[in-house]
Design goal:
Elements: E1 6-17, E2 28-38, E3 43-50, H1 55-70, H2 77-88, H3 96-115, H4 120-124, E4 131-136, H5 144-156, E5 162-165, H6 171-185, E6 191-194, H7 201-211, E7 219-220, H8 228-237, E8 242-244, H9 251-259, E9 265-266, H10 276-289, E10 292-293, H11 299-306, E11 315-318, E12 335-338, E13 341-344
Parallel strand pairs: 4-11, 5-6, 6-7, 7-8, 8-9, 9-10
Antiparallel strand pairs: 1-2, 2-3, 4-13, 12-13
Length: 363
C-alpha cells in the first residue's frame, strides 16, 4: 500500500489593495490560493502571487492542465513537481507555468508538515531562530522627501538594511536621491539600489560609476534579466556587487547565471521559480557556487525557508505588503517581523491560511 494520493485541488482568486500603490498600474496584489486534499483526509494550502500580470492565467492552468496532471499522484512535493513540469512543458519552462506549479508545491509541503504535525520550519529542519529583514519599497515614483521618510521609518524599525529604486531618465536625479538616502541612514547601513532592468550596459556602467561613491551594498537588476552575459560584462568592469533573480524562473537559469558569473547574489522568488522544492535547490546552487542568496519578497514564506538554509540570508519586507498587512489571512500565521528580524512560530505546516473570497477579489 502506498501513501495518500492527491484527491482534490481547489483554487480561489484573491485581490489585496495596496495601501501605498506600487505605481499607477499596480494598486493591488493578486494571490491565487490553492488547497490540495489527499485521499487520507489531509489537506494543504499553497498560493501563487503576482503584482500585475498572470493571476488569471495561473488559475486557468491550475484548474485545467495541473489538476489533470496531478490527480491520483502520491501527495508528495518532489514527484508531483516533476510531473507538473513535464505536463506544462509545452507552455514554457518558466513564468506562468512555474507560478502555477508553486501553488501546488507549497500546498504539498504544507500537507507534508501537517501530516507530521510539525511546523514547516521544523519539518525541513530549523537552523536559526530569526532572520534579519531589510526594508524595501517600490518608490521610484515617490518624491525624494517621501523616500527619505520611508527609509527613516525602516531604519527606526530596526531593519538591517534598506533598498530603493533607481533608473530615472535623468541620472543626476538618481544620484541626488541615493545621496539623500545615504545621508539619512549614515555610512553603516547597507543600502541596496534596484534598477528593475531599466539600463543597457553603457547606461549601467555610467550609473553604477556615478552611484558607487554612496557605497551601494548591491545593484539589483541593472540590465534586462534575460541577458546573463551582459551582467557578467558589467561585473567584470565595476566593483559594486550585482544581484539578480526575481525574473529568473527555473533552477536551470539560476545555474546558468551562477555559471557565467552574472551575479554576486541570487534572488529567487519562491512563487516565480515554482515553489519550495526549486527554491531550496537554488539555495543549494548558490551555496555550492559561492554566491549570496537573498529571497525576493514574500517574507511570510521565504522567511520560514530562510531559517532552514545553510547560508545566512535576509528577507525583503516592503511596507504594508506582507500577507497579514494586506488583509489576506484568516488568522495570524505565527510569522512576525519585529525589531528588524522575522521569527516564525507557526502551527503545523506553514501557518498561512487565507481569508474567504469576496466579490471584489474576482474583479
Ligand atoms: C519588486 C519587484 C516586484 C514587485 C515588487 C517589488 C522589486 C523588488 O524589484 O526587488 O522588491
Ligand atoms: Mg527587485
Amino acid at each position: 500500500m502506498g501513501g495518500p494520493v492527491i484527491a482534490d485541488l481547489r483554487t480561489v482568486p484573491l485581490r489585496a489593495p495596496l495601501r501605498r500603490p506600487w505605481g499607477p498600474d499596480v494598486t493591488s496584489l493578486r494571490v491565487v490560493a490553492a488547497t490540495v486534499a489527499d485521499s487520507a483526509g489531509g489537506s494543504g494550502v499553497g498560493f501563487s502571487w503576482t503584482p500585475s500580470a498572470g493571476a488569471s492565467a495561473v488559475r486557468a492552468l491550475l484548474e485545467t492542465d495541473v489538476r489533470a496532471a496531478v490527480s491520483g499522484l502520491p501527495a508528495e512535493p518532489e514527484p508531483v513537481w516533476d510531473r507538473m513540469r513535464a505536463a506544462l512543458a509545452d507552455a514554457g519552462a518558466g513564468g506562468v507555468t512555474t507560478m502555477a506549479m508553486a501553488a501546488v508545491d507549497i500546498a504539498l509541503w504544507d500537507l507534508r508538515a501537517r501530516r507530521a504535525a510539525l511546523p514547516l520550519v521544523e519539518l525541513i529542519g530549523r537552523r536559526r531562530t530569526a532572520v534579519p529583514v531589510y526594508g524595501s519599497g517600490v518608490n521610484l515614483h515617490c518624491p525624494v522627501d517621501e523616500l527619505v521618510e520611508q527609509v527613516r521609518r525602516q531604519v527606526d524599525a530596526g531593519c538591517a538594511g534598506v533598498k530603493i529604486k533607481v533608473g530615472l531618465p535623468d541620472l543626476g536625479e538618481d544620484v541626488a536621491r541615493v545621496a539623500a538616502v545615504r545621508a539619512e541612514v549614515g555610512p553603516g547601513v547597507p543600502l541596496m539600489i534596484d534598477a528593475n532592468q531599466r539600463w543597457d550596459l553603457p547606461a549601467a556602467l555610467r550609473a553604477v560609476r556615478a552611484l558607487a561613491p554612496y557605497e551601494p551594498h548591491w545593484v539589483e537588476e541593472p540590465l534586462p534579466a534575460e541577458d546573463l552575459r551582459a551582467h557578467a560584462a558589467l561585473r567584470a568592469r565595476c566593483a559594486v556587487p550585482v544581484a539578480i533573480g526575481e525574473n529568473l524562473h527555473t533552477v536551470g537559469r539560476f545555474a546558468e547565471a551562477i555559471g557565467v558569473g552574472a551575479c554576486d547574489i541570487v534572488q529567487p522568488n519562491v512563487v516565480r521559480v515554482g515553489g519550495i522544492t526549486p527554491f531550496r535547490a537554488i539555495a543549494g546552487l548558490a551555496s555550492a557556487g559561492g554566491v549570496g542568496f537573498a529571497p525576493h519578497l514574500l517574507p511570510d514564506l521565504a522567511g520560514q525557508l530562510a531559517m532552514t538554509l545553510s547560508q545566512d540570508t535576509w528577507v525583503e519586507d516592503v511596507e504594508d505588503a506582507d500577507f497579514a498587512a494586506l488583509g489576506l489571512l484568516a488568522a495570524p500565521s505565527g510569522v512576525r517581523v519585529a525589531d528588524g528580524v522575522l521569527t516564525a512560530h507557526t502551527g503545523p505546516g506553514h501557518g498561512l491560511r487565507f481569508r474567504e473570497p469576496n466579490p471584489e477579489d474576482d474583479a
